[in-house]
Each structure stands twice: as C-alpha cells, then as structure tokens.
Design brief:
The chain is built from 2 helices and 3 strands. By secondary structure, the chain is mostly helical.
C-alpha cells in the first residue's frame, strides 16, 4: 500500500528529522563531555585521596617514632628512680655503719660519681683521694658557695658532699 504525502508535509517531516538528528548529536556531545568531566573528577578525587593517605601515613610514622622515644625516656626515668632508691638504701646502710662505730664525728663525706653514690668517707680529703684514685683530676676540687644552687648531680663528674650524722 502506498501512501501519498504532500510535499509540505514531507518537507516538515524532513526538517523534524534533521532537528532530531541535530539534538541527538548535541546530546551525544554533552554525554561525551560529561563522561570526560567525570573521568577527570574521578582522577582528581583519586589523587587527593592518595595524597591524604600519604600524609596520614607520614603522620602515623612520626607518631610511632615519638611513641618509641617516649617509651625509651620512660624506661630510662624508671631505671633512674630505681637507682636512686638503691642509692638511698646503700647510704642508709653506710650511715648506720658510721653511727655504730661510735666515733665522735658529727658528719661523714659522701662521694658521688655522676650523681650516683660511690662511697662514704671520714673526711673530705679521704673522699677526694678516693675520687682521684678512680680517675678524677688531682687538685681540681672547688668549694661550693654557701647558699648558691649546685649544678645537677648528673652533670658533675665527681662531687663530695658533707652529710651530718644525727642520733637515731
């Protein structure tokens, strides 16, 4: 069966077809542009996430190092506390021994090496002689100014300190 179409109708149909093809081509171009934009956005997001992951990893590594250093410092401090407690016990034992000797002395001289108890002596000269026997510089002893602050014991190689003996 044949259909007869007028020329004006045919021309209108052809124009509509051309317009539909143009709209289709524009829609396809927009789709391609949208796909390209989406791929670019995906790449930017991926690069951003990788940068964040790298930064967080660096911060985690720094935190682990800081934690390890803090742990080492804590262990050192705990060891120092134990050494100080042992020094106090040894000093008490030495003081008891000095008191039991029934000497009329009112003080003893304690020799410290780098802040740790080394020995106990009847005189400052005996303490200095013992330190010099252990390698201290002979004659390099100075007296502390009364009332002046002493440097930290751990920073001084050798220190002689008078300790009063009181009755128990």
């Amino acid at each position: 069966m044949y259909r007869i179409v007028r020329t004006t109708t045919h021309a209108a149909l052809v124009a509509d077809l051309d317009q539909a093809r143009t709209e289709r081509d524009q829609a396809l171009a927009e789709l391609d542009q949208t796909r390209a934009d989406a791929a670019e956005s995906e790449q930017v997001v991926e690069d951003g996430l990788l940068a964040v992951i790298r930064q967080v990893t660096r911060e985690r590594d720094v935190a682990r190092i800081a934690l390890a250093e803090t742990g080492a410092e804590l262990a050192h401090a705990q060891a120092q506390v134990l050494l100080d407690a042992e020094d106090r016990v040894a000093l008490r034992a030495l003081l008891r021994t000095a008191r039991k000797q029934g000497d009329d002395r009112d003080r003893v001289y304690v020799l410290f090496r780098r802040g740790s108890l080394h020995s106990l002596h009847r005189s400052a000269a005996a303490a200095e002689k013992a330190a010099e026997a252990e390698g201290a510089a002979p004659g390099g002893w100075t007296a502390a100014v009364p009332g002046a602050a002493l440097p930290p014991a751990s920073e001084v190689a050798w220190r002689v300190q008078a300790l009063a003996l009181s009755a128990p």
